[in-house]
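no rush on this but wanted to send it before i forget. what follows is a protein written twice so to speak, once as letters and once as structure tokens for the fold. mainly i need to know what kind of three dimensional shape the backbone takes. thanks a lot i owe you, the record is right below.
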Amino acid sequence: MITKSDFLLFLQAPMHLWASKNNQLEILVPSVYNRHLMEQGKDIEKIAKEFMQNYLAKKYNSFTIETEQTFTDGHFQTRVDALVHDTEDNVYDIYEIKSSTSVKKEHIYDVTFQRLVCEASIAVRNVFLVHVNKEYIRMGDLDLDQFFEITDLNEEIDKLRTTVSALREKAWKVTTNPTPGGILECVKPKVCPSPKLCHPILPEYPIYDLPRLFGKKARDLKAQGVLAIKDIPEGYELSDRQNQHVEAVKWGEPLIDHAAINTELAKLEYPLYFLDYETYAPGIPAYDGYKPFQQMVFQYSLHVFDAPESDPKHFEFLATEASDPGIKLAAHLAQHIGETGSVIVWNTSFESGRNKEMAQMYPDYSEFLLSINDRIFDLMVVFSKGYYIDPDFHGSASIKNVLPVIAADYGLEYDKLAIQRGDEAMIAWAEIIAGTISKDQIEQSKQDLLDYCELDTMAMVKIWEALQALV
């Protein structure tokens, strides 16, 4: 039997579906963060059903509604979130509930599969997607009529009917294969749920390390028997950035544009402020002024160098009360970042985006927060623009990939922490605010969060120092 979930797995990669049906998926238990997202989805689905009772009563003269009803069509099976029977016209409308803030490509494939299966049993008139309104701003009690949007997907489904019908047959054939031989694998080994099947043997520097190497190009190289970057033929068509990575791997040493790095670092003005935020993005806004899934900044770490030869000073803030953390954080930060000097971050779009949002929400700190953006410096640019390329970055400009290479003596510090990633920090903070852990655990989690965020800014300091020494 091919369920809707099976079909979506097939769309990821046919091999993933075969692995699932043959008990060869290696990642069976979702991460703590993914489980958290699933719980958020359930919360949104719950209030969506409450919203629909009122919505449907206004739209239909006479109707009944069934939730989680299962339909089968030969080898295919689906479960419908909400099936509305218009008893006046004796037809059915399907309402699929998603916790996202937009209609995604996978959603259209999802509902097209559902419609094809359901049509074998009932007269389906319309298919709608119930999703979150990204522009909704909470003020007071949650307004469900404003929180949700309903999008008609009939036109999109009509365009995909033939395609999905053919694809689901291919998916069924995959499940009947006794072996994985000849089944198409994925091209994303770093997130593959069945790496032993999709990528059983990978060299030290595989072609998948090349930045922005999309599926078609990756499959073309693999079809030529090329899995290692060093084996890519001379003259093979790649982007300039990709060719730089190939060159670094083939030479076995980093490519460093000293002049470009020097130009970037010359933009810095003292005092230097190394800043990092930690955030949490609830699907259902927790406090007034927030949109669905908007990032709430609950923590910062700041390392400050007043002058070239000065020792760094460290400041930090962690909100631990069940109230809007942003206003208190902005007030605390304003005490420690002066009116002049460069504010150094890793990935400008994130910190500057949060500053813009907080500036809109907290007018008293608007000028201060926007002034930070006026003098923000993205240290990641040195690596994301290819001024420094090392094979051991494995094509990534992530601070956790760069740090162990460029500052080897400090690069393993993350491994010593209880919290090692941003998503883990989100969950830890959410548990503190919700009070779902003991008092002793709360105190430990607070310290773990402070340690993690401090390391993020110290990691930037170490990388900056290494670049300074280099140029």
